[in-house]
Design goal:
Layout: E1 14-19, E2 24-27, E3 30-32, H1 39-50, E4 54-59, E5 71-74, H2 78-88, E6 94-97, E7 104-106, E8 127-129, H3 133-144, E9 149-156, H4 164-175, E10 179-184, E11 195-202, E12 209-214, H5 215-233
Parallel strand pairs: 1-4, 1-6, 4-5, 6-9, 9-10
Antiparallel strand pairs: 2-3, 7-8, 10-11, 11-12
Helix pairs in contact: 1-5, 2-3
The chain binds cytidine-5'-triphosphate and calcium ion.
Cytidine-5'-triphosphate binds near residues 97 and 154.
């Protein structure tokens, strides 16, 4: 049964999950956003709760309701997501970064609504890089401690340089996380869909594992891999 400890391998563990898509304001009524629905994050939270974990859920904008039973922190921008993640990650056994974080933000935010102009001049938006939160958590773990297991998510397309798998393996190395859940996009897969196919890459050298099915199914596999990694981490 679900009360059997063998089926609740994350009992006593804390898992922080980021989900949804960040929004970067341009002015009081407009923002730059992305199409992340938050569904994968909700599925991950449900799987971690079912496995017995305490779940800290950091929600950027989501099309769906955040799950019940989590400690919820809501954020809007990448800067707010960074602050919440760097605060909660050190007290967590695992971090799963399912949020779609804006790589750039407008380098200034207008305090008043941007208006059309009579002189025909159009506004120009200039962008600044946002910090890489996942890479910072990995760095923070190296210096002052952090989650024993850090999982990233990445959506990749193949291009003339490399296959999605090669891009994913390079990203796993670059970020320094323990596992990277690779979505191959561009075939009407992923955004807002209930079902998808991913390949899970492992920094420990385990063979890549391909999982297809619902986001719930993928979440169960990701969470059981986290439990396995925590088990062997002691
Ligand atoms: N991520 C993050 N901080 C950012 C951007 C991304 O923590 N500023 C995290 C995402 O939550 C995800 C992982 O990094 O878990 C990979 O995101 P992705 O956008 O694929 O990686 P990038 O390094 O931004 O690479 P790209 O230039 O391909 O977008
Ligand atoms: Ca990115």
């Amino acid at each position: 049964s679900s009360g059997d400890p063998a089926h609740r391998p994350l009992t006593g563990r804390t898992v922080t999950i980021t989900a949804g898509g960040t929004r970067e304001p341009l002015d009081p009524v407009r923002f730059l956003g992305n199409r992340s629905s938050g569904k994968q994050g909700v599925a991950l939270a449900a799987a971690a709760l079912a496995a017995g974990a305490t779940v800290r859920f950091i929600a950027a904008h989501m099309d769906v309701q955040p799950p019940d039973g989590v400690e919820l922190t809501t954020v809007e921008t990448a800067a707010e997501l960074r602050e919440a993640t760097l605060r909660l990650a050190p007290q967590s056994d695992a971090l799963i970064m399912a949020a779609a974080v804006a790589d750039f933000r407008p380098d200034s935010v207008s305090e008043t609504k941007v208006k059309k102009r009579d002189d025909g001049e159009n506004p120009v938006i200039t962008l600044t890089r946002n910090p890489d939160i996942l890479a910072e958590v990995v760095q923070q773990r190296g210096s002052s401690g952090g989650p024993a297991v850090i999982v990233g998510f990445a959506a990749e397309t193949g291009d003339s340089d490399a296959t999605p798998l090669a891009h994913g393996l390079a990203k796993l190395k670059r970020k320094g996380c323990d596992q990277l859940v690779l979505n191959r996009v561009g075939r009407s897969l992923v955004f807002g869909q209930d079902s998808t196919e991913v390949t899970i890459l492992d920094a420990g050298g385990a063979e890549p594992e391909t999982v297809s099915g619902s986001k719930n199914r993928i979440a169960e596999v990701v969470v059981s891999r986290v439990a396995l990694a925590l088990g062997s981490a002691g």
